[in-house]
Amino acid sequence: MMMFTKPHPAQTICSSDAVFEVKDLGVAYGRDAASVQVVNDVSLSVGRGEALGVVGESGCGKSQTMLAALGLLPRGGRITSGQVLLEGRNLVDLSPREMRAVRGSGIALISQDALTSLNPAMTIGTQMAEPMIHYGGMSRSAARTRCIELLDLVGIPGAATRLASYPHELSGGMRQRALIAMAISANPKVLIADEPTTALDVTTQSQILRLIDSLRKELGMALILITHDLGVVAGVADRVAVLYAGRVVETAETETLFASPRHPYTKALLDTISQLEDEVSERLNPIPGLPPDPRNPVQGCPFNPRCDYVREVCRADLPALADSVEGGRHPVRCHVDPFVGLSLTMASGGAR
Amino acid sequence: MISFILNRALQIIPVIIGVTLATFLLAQIIPGDPADVLLGSMASEEARQQLRLSLGLNEPIYVQYAIYLKNLLQGDLGQSFTFAQPVTQVIVERLFNTSLLAIAAIILASVAGVAAGTWAALKPGSLRDQGLSVVVLFFNSMPSFWLGLVLILTFGLHLRLLPVGGMQDATGSSGIGSLVAHMVLPTITLAAWSLAVIARMTRSAILDVINSDYIRTARSRGVGEARIVLRHALPNAMPSVITVIGMQMGFLLSGAVLTETVFSWPGIGLAMFQAISTRDIPLIQGGILVLAVAFVLINFAVDILYAYFNPKVKLA
């Protein structure tokens, strides 16, 4: 198998050389009886210079996990359990002031929609330079030089004149580049890209993905790429974690995951993209049903109402995230796991 | 920006023409013959005819309007019989006093309102936020003349801290200190309602933008909460706050009628009050015209400020 022939820097899900780690994280909204758990026991880790893809449908807890890690959960949200470790330091215990210092230089964020993610009332230059001047102790002219350097780095032509532009004066691709330049301005150790290409057209998407990937290699950042699109992950991520209903359901190296998905949900996600690649555009093959509402958790495995392989046990018990086959390198949260791989080879016959 | 300002200035002209038409028609709509009002019901029919002729009341209505406009352009708004002076003179003398009070009130209302609204928005649902809501509700529900009377009773008559009427001491000891002392109570009275509206608007405008993606971006880059509110949220909340402040400035001018009356403040408001009670139509017309034009000009200034705070408006 491919993954045995190709050794990788981060071989286990909780490697000791991880620069950034989320351990058993839980996130909930509301208090007491009205409390809604949106993230459960999520553990992720990413090593220096490594790229981790976090994949799942809308509302599966991808963004909530990352916002919790940054200490930026919206009002009402709170971390109920677990740790967020940046170079071994637990961020959950930090004071707001200490956490502020971690943002930007420790962990940086690229958001989904660059138009709404840039302050419409400030020029690009002013918002780029703000943390450098007011928190990084840079002079105005030094910050300006640095901004031009960063805009050059992300491929914005005429960087010096662009500093005086307002966000609405730039094209979508340029805005996303400016947002990336802002995110990397303090040399973060971890870059979280939350659906960085969703709002862009297809050509621009691949340019932006290539840019993020090359910056990661150039600057030695760890990258966490959050997306609902496995196709986006394929070219960039070294490893992939698939989230469903606030839980990690499968983690593997990217090639392994694409070659032999073990969770029915991962398999269904792959089915939605493989059709596009084959250019057989008869019909899209969406996953039937909707992800569960976190206010009404599903008894047993949360995927059981939509699963083709569902059995009695799936409706009763939540499966653990475990790996019985691959020696801890491809854990999956599924009762029917071995059968999923089996039926994949038979599925070409036309089960679906 | 210059072409934006010129463009807006051109749009004002038809509005002003509309205002003159409205004030002109006001005199036509009000029941009763102006000759009756001016001469009294006991006057002879001949004297009335004479007056109608001299006022041009027998001419067709569009001719009367043309005469009105011609006089207006020459600064002639007619004669006020209450004050036995030209209306223009009555208004010009009092416009300064009213402006003084209105400007002081709008500054107080804007500064205190924006500050209070921002302060409450920092912790929505907290004790201080709820406290502000109560104060806002109180300020918005009580009539300004009542607040004026309560202030007069408390600070003027009871505590004897501040003068309660006029602009200067009766003893003639004038000076800036005396003026400021006389301004305190009317300014607070006039500002209270607007202050509450501005505070409420600021609070909700900040809460609207505080959950924006760009606020999250700024936070994710390590920008502190004070800068988040003052440099990111407040400027983006400003357009809606400025619109409200502009509208409040218009209301302040009309609110001045009651406040000036309660505090005997010699401004347009007090003159209008007297004009209305004596059916001094030319003065009412002139007062309304001046207040309406002031309202239009204030909105013009607000538009310019709006464009300044929201760069996108300039494109439109």
Secondary structure class of chain A reads alpha/beta
At the fourth level of CATH, the homologous superfamily of the largest domain in chain A is P-loop containing nucleotide triphosphate hydrolases
How would you spell out the order of helices and strands of chain B? HHHHEEHHHHHHHH
Distance between the termini of chain B: 11 Å
Oligomer: heterodimer
Order of helices and strands of chain A: HEEEHEEHEHHHHHEHEHEEHHHH
**Overall CATH architecture of the largest domain in chain A:** 3-Layer(aba) Sandwich
Approximate shape of chain B: globular
Biggest beta-sheet profile of chain A? 6 strands, mixed
Domains of chain A, number:
2
Strand content of chain A: 15-25%
Helical segment tally of chain A? 14
CATH class categorisation of the largest domain in chain A? Alpha Beta
Can you give a write-up of this model?
The complex is a heterodimer of chains A (352) and B (316). By secondary structure, chain A is α/β, with parallel strands linked by helices. Chain A has helices at 2-5, 62-70, 96-102, 114-117, 124-134, 140-153, 159-162, 172-183, 202-219, 230-236, 254-259, 264-278, 312-316, 337-347, and strands at residues 18-29, 36-47, 51-55, 77-86, 89-90, 107-110, 190-194, 222-227, 239-244, 247-253. Chain A is globular and about 65 Å long. The relative contact order of chain A is 0.14. Chain B has 316 residues and is an all-alpha fold. A two-stranded antiparallel sheet of chain B has the order 1-2. The longest helix of chain B is centred in the last third of the chain and has 38 residues, at 225-262. The radius of gyration of chain B is 24 Å and the shape is globular. The interface between A and B is medium-sized, with 36 and 24 residues.
